[in-house]
Design goal:
The complex is a heterodimer of chains A (about 375) and B (about 475). Chain A has about 375 residues and is of the alpha/beta class. Chain A has 14 helices and twelve strands. In chain A, strands 3-2-4-7-1-8-12-11-9-10 form a ten-stranded mixed sheet, sandwiched between helices. A two-stranded antiparallel ribbon of chain A has the order 5-6. In chain A, β5 and β6 form a beta hairpin. In chain A, α6 crosses α11. Chain A is globular and about 55 Å long. By secondary structure, chain B is an alpha+beta fold. In chain B, the strands form five sheets. Chain B has a nine-stranded mixed sheet with strand order 5-4-6-7-1-8-13-12-11, with helices on both faces. Chain B has a five-stranded antiparallel sheet with strand order 20-19-18-21-22. Chain B has a three-stranded mixed sheet with strand order 3-2-14. In chain B, α2 packs across α3 and α6 packs parallel to α7. The chains are: A alpha/beta (about 375), B alpha+beta (about 475). β5 of chain A pairs antiparallel with β18 of chain B.
Chain lengths: ~375, ~475
């Protein structure tokens, strides 16, 4: 199998404020994010040769027009990518393949979601079939929390520490959904959503968009970011079972999708010891339990050790691996289709030393990670600065 | 001669004291308590439960037919017997029919089943009856009614002979519900009792005793259905029966469940009956039916069958009238808007109703829902269909406050269950307290109504903690 390592580079990033954007529609959001990314890259819409857009709920049925229509990118291809919560990062991955193939020089990967217009509490998950009905999204991930409590002796305080850490980071980020720190007590006393997950164990429903401009490294070297573009060290995606609740072999103590994607990404990037080599990671934390399990599945610590990893500060900015320096999905928000690209924006800016929030010192190698469905898909991207 | 091969019953887990109902309205209380079907139960789901109880230890695919009796069919147009038969996994080469419209429907169905077996057109027929009738709020009916189901398996072979049917037709507007009525209506109950119930019940009972040359003393037990104990006593006296030989009409423990009462009382009587006993059965409703049950032999005990007594013993008390009002949807709340498809419901009947899974013949994995390609070893189309067990233990769970996008104060437990004999399922829990759920808890799988998406009854399986007999 070939490798994506150093075959593409990000030369421009853009991201809207995440949150309840009542007065803006998806057009406003995607235009803001895409133009910010193009400005950052020093290019115009005419330079974009092809576009991939991640989007899950809002515009199903609008297809490529999700991005092509608001940005008026006519006469060129736009492909809408849907892959659960990894939709945005899968848009990026597909864009990278197109650039690496030599078919295009400059492309746009973006994502947008306008969840607040959908209404209701929580994500719509009803598939119209009793077997696939399952439960709410927090209910699915709560199954893993219950099992982890049972096997590892973790408790709700271990979960709450993740929320406290991510709120501490997000409070410093001007584009995060929430702009405040929380205490352990606040998290623990919040109303239950799906036991053992309470309100502060869940990311919020947010609106937002994010975009990145991708090109080949030789072009990047002549771009506005000639010295500080972000090289793709790995970009992988791994699918797993859609309905783990029905699988007897599923232990609910981790996500095989993340383990598989991480293994492939480390092989592609040539990473031997992720906890030592990776400076920061945007880790999918749709729920606090998800972050804990993903920290293990990504190899930052052993199974059963993630609660301790967070408790002892290894996941803090300034710790061993800064996990979710942006505030993560928990505090930054999670407009599904936008999240993957938002993480890539965050990692790129961190590597460039111009983070909007808490800056990780001397960051050279960063990771972005999405887990989608109840563990049905995982996308991992590793970005690094040029030598 | 048609025989009774097995019997079964079902009573919803919940009971409500009549005092609670009376207090809610400030009206006099009738003594005792009544059973209350959960919000996700109806006549059809209760019939499935009673049918399953009756078929404990038997192969459902060996039975030739299923007759369903009810006055509260979930459908005006659509047969319910077929749905019940599918949920009981009885196979497709069977005769199914619904008997409705009268509180006497269960004995009408029983007579039709006996006739079919006696004539040789069927070897065995399962008769199930269930009702979930509504009394008008604040009326005495609310207190007097109960919910429940009964089942009798009529067959060529069995320990008891069922014979001697006598019927009377008595047209009188006693109690009724028009198609647009939600609650039971009556004009003057005294007239119905005196000239309707008492007259026809006594006529049918007397005719039977006369034709069989039986004296009241020849009977071990009499199963006489009635709306209230006083009326039952009058029929017994008119027939010369000793009150001590009357089978309990469940007035204090269940309430009047309507059409299934005769099958539930018969099940209760058969639990006690001994070889040589003769039982008189008199059932009423727009006339009356009477028949005789001869115990040729003792019924052998069946492990796992709860019958009437088992179901009477397992119960949970509802705290107040509000729970009853919520279960019966007496108060209008905002409808949720789930999705449903009659096409997928039909296409996936093996999973949705028959409760089958797949087993990979290559690697042995039990797979649910049934896939084309094995999720464990990747082998294509080597999946055999198997029946899943209805009991299991909790592997993991959540207590979910989100139901169809709506926040609910009492969470719905969602359980990942490892079923006995293999297979893992993810089911919502009902009939239980969220507080009691823990990893390793035993649960049983029950057939319930999920929702009304696309304007049809979306039935599927849930689970509940294995009920314990109340001490």
């Amino acid at each position: 199998m070939g490798s994506m390592k150093d075959k593409t580079a990000i030369i421009g990033v853009g991201c809207t404020k995440f949150g309840e954007q009542w007065e803006k529609d998806a057009e406003d959001l995607i235009v803001e994010a895409a133009y910010e990314a193009m400005d950052d890259a020093g290019i115009t819409p005419d330079d974009i040769e092809a576009t991939w857009v991640g989007n899950l709920y809002d515009f199903t049925g609008l297809s490529g027009s999700v991005a092509a229509e608001p940005l008026k990118l006519f006469g060129r291809p736009t492909t809408r990518v849907e892959n659960f919560c990894a939709s945005g990062m899968d848009a990026f991955r597909n864009a990278c393949f197109a650039v690496a193939s030599g078919a295009y020089d400059v492309v746009l990967a973006c994502g947008v979601e306008k969840l607040m217009d959908v209404g209701g509490s929580g994500l719509p998950v009803d598939m119209g079939h009793p077997v696939f009905r399952g439960s709410s999204a927090p209910g699915m991930f709560a199954l893993a929390a219950t099992r982890s409590f049972h096997e590892h002796g973790w408790d709700r305080e271990d979960l709450a520490r993740v929320a406290v850490k991510n709120h501490k980071n997000g409070a410093q980020h001007s584009k995060a959904h929430f702009q405040r720190e929380i205490t352990l007590e606040t998290a623990l006393n919040a109303p239950m959503i799906a036991w053992p997950l309470g309100r502060f164990d869940a990311c919020a429903m947010s609106d937002g968009a994010a975009a990145v401009v991708i090109t080949r490294p030789e072009i990047a070297k002549k771009s506005k970011h000639k010295h500080d573009h972000a090289l793709t060290k790995a970009s992988v995606l791994s699918m797993d079972v859609f309905l783990p609740m029905y699988r007897e072999a599923y232990d609910w103590l981790g996500f095989p999708a993340t383990e598989n994607a991480a293994r492939q990404a480390y092989a592609e990037a040539g990473i031997k010891n992720p906890a030592e080599e990776i400076d920061l990671a945007e880790v999918h934390d749709c729920f606090t339990i998800t972050e804990l399990l993903n920290i293990q599945d990504l190899g930052f610590c052993e199974r059963g050790e993630a609660a301790k990893f967070v408790r002892e500060g290894y996941a803090d900015v300034g710790g061993k691996v800064a996990i979710n320096a942006s505030g993560g999905l928990k505090c930054f928000g999670h407009p599904i289709g936008a999240t993957g690209c938002r993480m890539l924006c965050e990692i790129t800016k961190q590597l460039q030393g111009r983070a909007d929030g808490a800056q990780v010192e001397n960051a050279r190698l960063g990771m972005a990670h999405n887990l989608g469905g109840p563990g049905s898909v995982c996308a991992v991207t590793i970005l690094g600065l040029p030598e | 001669m048609a025989k009774i091969a097995s019997f079964g019953a079902y009573i919803p887990l919940f009971r409500l004291s009549r005092q609670e109902m009376a207090s809610a309205w400030g009206v006099p209380a009738v003594p005792g308590e009544r059973s209350v079907a959960n919000a996700d139960e109806d006549s059809l789901t209760m019939a499935v439960a009673a049918g399953a109880d009756c078929l404990t230890g038997l192969d459902p695919t060996t039975i030739d037919g299923l007759y369903f009796a009810t006055t509260t069919s979930p459908y005006d147009e659509k047969q319910c017997a077929g749905v019940i038969a599918a949920a009981l996994d009885m196979g497709r080469d069977i005769n199914t029919a619904d008997f409705t419209g009268s509180l006497r429907a269960a004995s009408t169905a029983l007579r039709a089943a006996v006739d079919a077996v006696d004539s040789g057109s069927a070897g065995s027929i399962l008769v199930v009856a269930a009702d979930c009738r509504l009394g008008e709020p604040e009326s005495m009916w609310e207190q007097l009614l109960g919910d429940g189901a009964g089942a009798i398996l009529i067959s060529k072979r069995g320990p008891a002979t069922l014979r001697g049917f006598e019927s009377t037709s008595g047209e009188q507007l006693g109690f009724w519900r028009r198609s647009e009525d939600r609650y039971i209506r009556s004009f003057e109950p005294k007239v119905e009792t005196k000239y309707g119930y008492l007259k026809s019940a006594v006529e049918a009972g007397k005719a039977l005793l006369d034709h069989e040359n039986l004296a009241p003393g020849d009977l071990a037990n009499a199963i006489i259905t009635a709306g209230d104990p006083g009326s039952q006593g009058k029929v017994a006296r008119s027939l010369g029966l000793d009150a001590a030989k009357l089978q309990d009409m469940l007035f204090m423990s269940v309430g009047n469940p309507g059409s299934p009462l005769v099958l539930m009382m018969l099940a209760g009587a058969l639990e006690q009956a001994k070889a040589g006993d003769k039982l008189l059965v008199v059932n009423h409703g727009d006339g009356a039916d009477a028949f005789l049950v001869d115990l040729d032999d003792d019924f052998a005990p069946v492990i796992g069958r709860k019958g009437l007594t088992g179901h009477l013993l397992q119960k949970r008390n509802l705290p107040n009238y509000t729970s009853y009002a919520r279960f019966r949807k007496l108060m209008k709340v905002t409808d949720v808007d789930p999705r449903g498809s009659a096409v997928t419901y039909w296409r996936d009947i093996k999973v949705v109703l028959n409760f089958h899974a797949g087993r990979c013949t290559s690697c042995g994995a039990v797979l649910y829902p049934i896939p084309r390609v094995c999720g464990e070893c990747g082998t294509k189309d080597e999946i055999e269909e198997i029946k899943l067990a209805k009991t299991g233990t909790v592997f993991t769970f959540t207590l979910d406050h989100l139901e169809d996008g709506k926040y609910v104060n009492v969470p719905v437990p969602r359980l990942v269950l490892d079923l006995e004999g293999g297979g893992r399922l993810f089911l919502s829990m009902t009939d239980g307290d969220p507080e009691e759920v823990e990893i390793g808890m035993s649960a049983e799988v029950v057939f319930r109504r999920l929702h009304e998406a696309s304007s049809f009854h979306n039935y599927y399986w849930k689970c509940r903690p294995v009920p314990q007999a109340a001490s």
